[in-house]
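User: I'll paste a sequence; please echo it back and then give the predicted structure.

Assistant: Echoing your sequence first, then the prediction.
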Amino acid sequence: MVSPKIVKEQLTRHDAMKQDRQEWEPFYSDVNKYVRPRKKSIDNHRHPGSREDDHYSSIAPSASNTLGLIMADTLTPKSIEWFGYQIPEYSPYRQFAKNVSVQNWFRNLGQQVFAALAQSNFYSVVNEIYADFNSFATICMYLEEARLKRSGFNGFNFKALPISSFTFAENYLGLVDTVFREYDLSVRQLFQDFGENGNIPEKFQKLLQKEPDTTVKLVSVALPSSEIGRTTGMPFTVLDIIVDARAVVGDSGFHEFPFFVGRWDKASGETRGRGPTAVAMADIKTLNELRFQELMGLQKAINPPLLSGEEGFVGTVQMIPNAIVYSRNPRDVRLMPAEMRMDLSSLKADQLEGSIKDIYLVDQLKLPQRGDMTAEEVITRRGEVERLLGPTVSRFESEVLSRMLERCAGMMVRSGAVSDPPPELDGLEEIDIVYTGQLSRAQKLAQVQAVQRWAQMGMQHGQIDPKVLHVMNLPEWQRVAAPLMGVPPEAVNTVAEQRKIEEQLLAAQQKQEAQSDVEGLAGVANQMAPLAKSLEGGGVVGGTADAVAAGIGS
């Protein structure tokens, strides 16, 4: 049971965090207006079917969407396994890293989590996250287990929180460990979600009967359990509070922190992120205004105003196409001349569009479309493109993906969806995430290319001095290079399998040599057979012997 004092303290803390967020709200409103126009605004709620009338350029939304899609394809592709698990480098359990049962268990864990992510709503939610990441530069994703349908594991459920709905705080290490989330439920939804707990105030029972669609405002706070006086049980607690009633309707414990907050880049002394949209906002606003002025100029050019004397028309002047306008003096009615330089506007607009695309890395991240590119050129170019994203997304991996994958693994192990770890891992409390997607491989491809150049140089020098070839341990490098190039483990023989194959080849070679020796002896025997037969039948050698014997006898 949560005391009223704790509820009051948390709501007061939330109000203070909202005050701190206000200095960012003008920027978020601009992002909402010019880059993400279909998102809910920070300062008002969009009505279904409504549209903004002051958005005249699509370059920024298109560039943001392109960058988000490229990040999704390189970081979290759905078609290939882009992560794995292993024992941390600094862990004393590292001695078991090459144990076959340990490797198989980590491999199975990665496959099971990857399959569960594919069956959940992760990939649809993360695409929205990537778009928010490069525009608002601060994102928050929530992970919970799907509603209980059967005993055991029921799958993952992800939510992307709007920028206007959450605030957060960091611990002394700079890691987010507290998140406040605002959300609305109808009274009917409130009872569907929290009715089983029996903590909903009585007044909502009456509303459920009379006005079930009445909106109720709630605040969900996730924080370390120790901060609300809980020293035992789960390390993290999530409280769902009805704001007006100050009543806790949800109280849940978590082994891992269920909210993942990511920042594109962060300045010293700030908690919220800054991204490419913050850099490009001046150009985006200028381009939008320039496009508006162009449209105004085109409108005047296509439908110019009329110049006429006073009281020159009869009745109302109609400016619509095919309208008939009656004039008292037609010779005094003429089009008003307009000297416009649309070429200057277009030139400046092209410069602004190029600047915006450069900031969002759109042109740099697109492969050149040449039909004569070799496979090596494509691989090299792709590596350069993806390494360009490396420094940008390292924070995203550490703040969002790694914490999310750790929670996914913990949820599946605890629910029995994955077999228990082998006895060698008893007591292991932390695991490392290994990224094996396209971006990670591109960053490591330099090692493969370096060894290829080194091996080629060694082969050339080996023609001069064969001792050089003894320096290279190419069989071991093949084993190291396989994961760097994305080769699945099933395609690589283990050390034991390699030794068995080598022993079989050696045995086959020895057998072949022995058979060759036998065949050689048999050939010699076949050659000696006629000579032996001649000796037995009194041939040339025998006759000579008889003659010698006869001479001796005389």
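The longest helix spans residues 495-536. The chain is about 50% helix and 15% strand.
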